[in-house]
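User: My instructor asked us to take a sequence, write out its structure as tokens, and then describe one feature of it. I'm not sure where to start. Here is the sequence I was given:
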Amino acid sequence: MKTLVKNFLPVSQVDRLRDARHLFRESNTARIATSAQTSGLRFASLAKPLASAYYSILSWQFQREERAVLAGLAKYHAELQEDDANVFLMRRNVHRLEKGLLMQPRRPIFAKDYILETVNVYRKIVAEPTRSAESTAESLQWGYDVLSEYFAVTSPDPVIDHARGVFEKCPPPPGKCSNIKRVPYKRMLNEHPVTYEQLEQLALKRRSVRWFEQKPVPRDLLDKAFTVAGLSPSACNRQPFRFLVYDDPEIVEKVASLPGGTIGWKQNIPVMVVVLGSLDAFYSEKDRHVIYIDGSLAAMSFSYALETLGLSSCICNWPDIEAHEARAQKVLGLEAYERPVFFMAVGYPDPEAKVAYSQKRPLEVMREYNPPIDRR
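Assistant: Let's start with the prediction itself. The structure tokens for your sequence are:
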């Protein structure tokens, strides 16, 4: 509607309408309407059925997310039904085995409910390693090493013995990556490559930069930062996200126009990065928020890594607005199960430009030790 009004009305009339809207917000009528809306929201929040009715009848804000979750589930289960070769399932289950291997004390028998499933999905993927870009030599070697370790330490059991027999018939991973054995290990706790003071200084230096030098950003530097991002924590090591990188000036201009927060400075962005979540990584709706959690963790590591390379970034908020989501899906060519987490502007910071001070909330407000809980 806003775009329609701007296209058909003169600028002066658009400005008058905007001023009238601002003044209306201070009127008694607006206060009454706001009060009624608040009462309705409170009523709808009293019980789950009321909330469901509200978002089914009065608001459709979650419809795109609902469809994306269903599309992801459909793709995930379709892959399993077709040939069991689901890379995300393999990654999740291998990581579950890792957690069992590092338990203290470790049980002599564990993972009986999913070990055969894990071996079968590994067998299908290793037999056709070129079927997916996810089937890298490193990932397959990791799966092979963890499964080998599992069968080496578990006690005899009919289910485990059967799975072991299937695993022993699997072809080895294509090409030995290195001599590193990719299994749970002990860290060297006396080694600290970065001090707290250095990390704090890096966090203080990192600011949201909106003005950049007009020169290209080398892709090898970006890839170094993405490598660090890939080391971030991820639920069950699924890493259900990708970084879409745009450094062609014509494409950057179009992609930079997608998030609303770039108005006024999008014309000087050298690189745009889309943190894209993929909901086909999950077998259940319960994990639908993981794309936002894991994507954000990786993006923060990426942002810090950029600073060490002389680059800076600005994370652009991506509120769930249907018109924006639909446009992003069209422009970026996204599948129904793919959702942007947010956008990032990247480049060499303009040394003459300012950044926002952005006073952060005090520690005492952000942190609370042992808040009251229900001990019953």
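For the description part of your assignment, you could build on this observation: Residues 66-168 form one domain. Try explaining in your own words what that tells you about the chain.
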